[in-house]
Design brief:
By secondary structure, this protein is α/β, with parallel strands linked by helices. It has 7 helices and 9 strands; from the N terminus they run βαβββαβαβαβαββαα. The structure holds S-adenosyl-L-homocysteine (SAH). The site of S-adenosyl-L-homocysteine has 18 residues, from strand 5.
């Protein structure tokens, strides 16, 4: 079973949206498992402090290496084969390819930071992989962790209704998805492109491929460059 362990100061944020819809049904059916661990249980002193002032000065607080490592050690099995992740804006931006790798594996142990982040030594001491969900700053790792887990869980066998619906999505072929339409045929004077109503499946496939290319060229030239296509 795919298993996520989330280390956080806010376990109440879980399962949150992961308790609903596809992910929630799969959680209820035991396709995957979610465990949250309160970091403060490993906090120090009467106030169970998890953070302290930054060495060298500066604003904010930094999460302590001793506290975080104790929490990781308590949450990890001795032979834990899962990747240990730190949600972090400094990490490699999460990609569908990396999500696929995580989903194929046994799960993930995910550390969610707060404040200014974590003492650097936690990362090397426990071999954490830093994962970012984009070039912007959230106030904590929890929403990033929810995004990562959601992306993984929907790929687990038996979670998505139609197995096929994963294969054609944005990024799966290295391109953005083509535009989609449904009824009504005329919406405020805008018609569904006639090719989609033609019943000619080869022609439809060609149109979709061209639209994917057109959109990707216009919006994400970086993806086109990665595919080695001429733009
Ligand atoms: N001072 C840090 C940002 C801290 S934000 C810096 O400049 O890099 C607090 C925490 O929120 C981070 O430690 C991380 O766990 C989480 N977080 C914020 N933005 C994120 C992002 N884009 N991706 C993943 N995690 C993020």
């Amino acid at each position: 079973m795919w298993r996520a362990t989330v280390l956080t100061l806010f376990p109440e944020m879980f399962p949150g949206p992961l308790g609903l819809s596809l992910a929630g049904d799969a959680l209820a059916r035991g396709v995957w498992e979610l465990e949250t661990r309160q970091l403060r249980e490993h906090g120090l002193g009467r106030h169970r402090a998890v953070d302290d002032t930054p060495a060298g000065g500066g604003p904010g607080m930094v999460m302590r290496a001793d506290v975080l490592c104790a929490a990781i050690d308590a949450a990890a099995a001795p032979d834990d084969g899962r990747p240990f992740l730190l949600m972090s804006p400094r990490g490699a931006p999460l990609s569908q390819a990396r999500v696929r790798e995580f989903a194929r594996g046994p799960g993930a142990l995910i550390l969610c930071a707060r404040f200014e982040g974590v003492d650097e030594r936690v990362i090397s001491a426990r071999g954490l992989e830093e994962v970012s969900v984009g070039d912007y700053i959230l106030s904590g790792g929890e929403i990033a962790a929810l995004a990562l887990i959601d992306a993984c869980v929907r790929l687990l066998p038996g979670v998505m209704g139609e197995e096929a619906s994963g294969a054609e999505e944005s990024f799966e072929g290295g391109l953005l998805e083509y535009p989609q339409y449904t009824r009504p045929r005329d919406f405020e004077g805008h018609e569904i492109p006639p090719v989609l109503l033609s019943g000619d499946h080869a022609k439809i496939a060609r149109w979709r491929r061209e639209e994917s290319l057109r959109l990707t060229r216009a919006r994400r030239p970086d993806l086109i460059a990665k595919l080695g296509l001429k733009d």
